[in-house]
Amino acid sequence: MTRSGRNADPLSAGSDNLKSRPRNVESRATRGDSRAAEQPPPAPWEPAASLLSHTSAPLASRVSITPVASSAPQALQPRPLAELSLNAQEAAMIEDLLFVFMGFEGQYIRFAKGYNPYEERDRLSGPQWRILPGLDPSLLDLTQSMLRMASHYTALETFVDVQSREEFGAVNHALCASIRRYLHEYLVMVVQLETQFLNDKNFTLQQLNVHILPSSHLMAHMYGLALELLKRNALLDDDTDESSDSSDDDFDHIIEQLRDGGDLVPGNMTGKKICKGGVVLGLITKRLESLSGDPSARVLLTTLLRDASRPYMAMLNEWLHHGSINDPHSEFLIKEQKSIRRERLEQDYTDEYWERRYTIRDHDVPPQLEAVKDKVLLAGKYLNVVRECGGVDVSRKMQDVPTSFDDSRFLENVSNAYAHANGSLMQLLLTTHELPARLRSLKHYFFLDPSDYFNYFLELGTSELRKPVKVVNTGKLQSLLDLVLRQPGSIVCLDKFKEDVKVEMNEITLLKSLQRVVNITGIEQGEALQLTSNQPLEGDKNATGFTSLQLDYTVPFPVSLVISRKTIWRYQALFRYLLSLRYLETQLSVTWYTHASGTAWTHRSSHRMLEIWKRRVWTLRARMLVFVQQLLYFCTAEVIEPNWQKLMNTLRDIENNCAGVTTPDGTSTPRVSYSKKPHTVDGLMQEHVDFLDTCLKECMLTNSKLLRIHSKLMQTCSIFATYTNWLSRELEKSDPDLTGNTKPGNMTDDQWRQFLVMRGERKQQQATSSKDGGGDTNMDSDKNPETRMNELFEVIRKWESNFSRHLQILLDALNHYAATETVVLLSLCARLSTANQGTEYAGLRSEEEGHGHGGGP
Predict the structure, then answer these.
(1) N or C: which end of the chain has fewer CB within 10 A?
(2) What's the CA gap between 803 and 710, in Å, rounded?
(3) Biggest distance spanned by C-alpha atoms of the chain
(4) For residues 84 and 845, which has the higher predicted lDDT (pLDDT)?
(5) Which pLDDT does position 661 carry in this prediction?
């Protein structure tokens, strides 16, 4: 396009146009004098700027929006473009574009009719422009192509004002600050173009287009990013995908606000998911990957990502190096629930403090941290524990740490922080708080290793433990236990943690509590034990102190992270099981003593069938004792002890790896582990839980079928031991040698004298009970001796059948589960099979009542 017809100075040409406009207005006013005399003069158009109210965005523009040009009076409308020359049109377009580039309407370039500048949604989308009619076609297309950059600028300016509000978080604020710098450079470019337009008479629209191409390219990329963020924030699109994390964060925020005394008013509650934090960084990263072939876009997005990630990196470094979270806008990848406090560890069977106090916002993790998010979580959790124990100087400033994602030391910083936090907490647990000694202490008390002190305690507390559980004096038992634990000569008297052992009573039977938690993973997920607190089990009405005795153990923080309430529950389950076996063994041993020392049992009767019956009783008692002793030996020597040694070996390996290497400046740093399996605090916690789970499983306490069979066998043995005195009385009544007053020939005078004394005392007791309303004690004495003998054989036959049948069912089940699940059960199966040899269920007896087996008391 030539400029022969254009004024020498484009500014003077523009001035001539401006001067012609008042004359045009004056001529129109002269022609309309007659009508003006008839009508009142129009109200003067006096637009004025005003200050808007403050928002939470401190740098947002507070100047009111200028009125649209279409609202100006007709007298102020410019001269039509069709009346201007080509050069004047070009100068007018350049002048208007310089205004439009800054978001203002020009004389000939106006907002489109569908655009409302007072609506924030329209400003965020960017205005559509229209050019007044009459512009030369050679200028029209070029002008319209440059208007896109003006729309992008207006949208970005509004985007920065909106996204800088407080609720959008620090990452959005940093992104807006970075965009604001680009907009400032953009305005500097507009000023430079205006200067060139005023000073260069040869400045054309084509030259203007060439100068703005790089900026237009950058503005388009920034506008595309802003548009995607606005759609995620539902500011341009109503269809939003709110994740559950959003509602969780809102709920936590509401709880914290109520706890701090705040009010639940609508303005304090967010109604939609805000795109912030790691999601913003992820969007920038995704666009950077997709536009990596465009050099200018790559430079722009790299700069935006670097600037936007700085506050996120500040939070990350604070978490990695101090173990604390400074996240007022809930945008960090780690979510903290302040309502869960460590004080709840003493009653918390679900380990909420460790599992739920700090969690990962899976949907808000930046791509740069996706591969190391678990390390980030654990590093901060470990350091947080050390910090709460006074092991981290939070006042110390962090030095030489990466401040953005594009730093080459970024991943190395995470790994080093994780290694340091893990080593610090491991050192704290193993040395300062003596975790290995704590575990050995638990073994002494809960696994009865050694058991000498506990046998002494049971002897001292027998009178109390025989009472019904509701009347047992727990304080007295605690005093007895303290006395026993301080008895010189025992290993436990040297235990520095013996003060932490407490005696308590649990009215719920072991079988019921185990059946309620048949699958041990239910404890880990906090399901079964949580249900127990809401729906309490009914206690055993016949429970005594022996069956309800339970130990508890107090563990301070941070050792309570490893020896948590869920692990204490496992220790208690194993303890009650071992105690039940020991108590049943004691009962059967007392039965053996009765059989070995009682006159009715040791006397060789002249009645042959009675001697056969006694031998059957002795054999059954011996089989029961073998069953209980073999089961107890298997649980202690073949299950608990080998698994305990594995746990201790793991602890020794960890101690060796964590043994500090002293540096020249006197400080100690953890030794780097080169083993294939790195030792971490979480790994140690899991090893401890796995050890207990394995013991429970191999002791048959996690299988409902084995539990039921085992319970029936234990109940049979217990009833047999309990009815020993009744059997002794029935035996005495059935023996013709002992019913009269004549001394049998095979009994010494001392034995006969002692027997008479005991018989007299027993008759006196029966007479007293009969006088008190105990019934007729002579009913049994009228029975036929043959009838009495048949009844005795029927009783022992039922006991033999019941015990043998359930033992064989147990053996069959053990064989099955040894082949499918736990091979160690084969050893127990081989041991227990000896207790069933020679019975009909072992295939070696065909008659109900055969000859008596050998083996006396």
Answers:
(1) N
(2) 11
(3) 161
(4) 84
(5) 40
